[in-house]
Amino acid sequence: MTKLNVDPTNTEQARAWDGDEGAYWARNSEQFDRSVAALHVPFMAAANLAAHDRVLDIGCGTGQTTRDAARAASSGSALGVDLSLRMIDHARHVAAREGLVNVSFEHVDAQIHPFEDEYFDVALSRTGAMFFGDPVAAFTNIARALRRGGRLVLLTWQGLEGNEWIRALSTAMAAGRELPIPQASAPGPFSLSDPQRVRTVLGAAGFTDIQLQPRSDAMWLGDDVDSAQQFVLGLLGWMLSRLDDKGRLLAVDSVRATLAAHDTGHGVLFGSATWTILANRHDHEVSTEGEQQ
Fold first, then answer.
1. 165 confidence band (pLDDT: 50, 70, 90)
2. Phi, psi angle pair for 51, to nearest 5°
3. Has residue 293 got a pLDDT over 50?
4. d(CA 40, CA 62)
5. Contact (CB, 8 A) for 21 and 124
């Protein structure tokens, strides 16, 4: 097995995604895809892929977006890349099962991987592009892989206040503890939540015509409270690691009560808020420092 070449700023992310966290996502890929189903269709519509496009899917996870991109780009191709070998292996297996011949997956760090210059027409990412240790360097590398005038299409989370699903569940899992508020500039779900930061990062990386389109959708976490609880405790179970037995029981009871309060009778649903980010690669050459020449 070839060792994953990771930029030092992405070491912690690689440890998580190429370890237990990525393995959990791979085992529960159908539930994860279903949880963002309300987001997926409009995101792919915004990507507006043409039959001949060559598509790069950044942080592709278990590959649903990559496979759908390959179907849309029927005479082109789609490449999915991710830090998680477990998720990449799962994505390859599903693509082979579905008979897709114009799709491929690579276990690489998109921040530093030597993609072919000006090869792709579109780079996209469904909630997978917020974890780079050096986002300007990462998006500069991605811009270089796009043809001049090529398109970038991202789905990212808005701030914590608009995302009831993570706010309510994190509060429940905290079991009365004060949790640190994640910094918007740190790698994580909210690193591309601030529109001004998005414009600054992408502009420095060689993108122009940057637009952010807001959406609010329901997040599905399970058909009923039992299935949702199993899913959430697997996803956020690390938050229980420093609790004693009493604290863990309190947290689990709090999670169940929160889920029960959001059981609609046709699924456990929470509010979410996202940005669809659209940008074009500048027509000029993109330098290694993320400056336009």
1. very high
2. -60, -30
3. no
4. 14
5. no
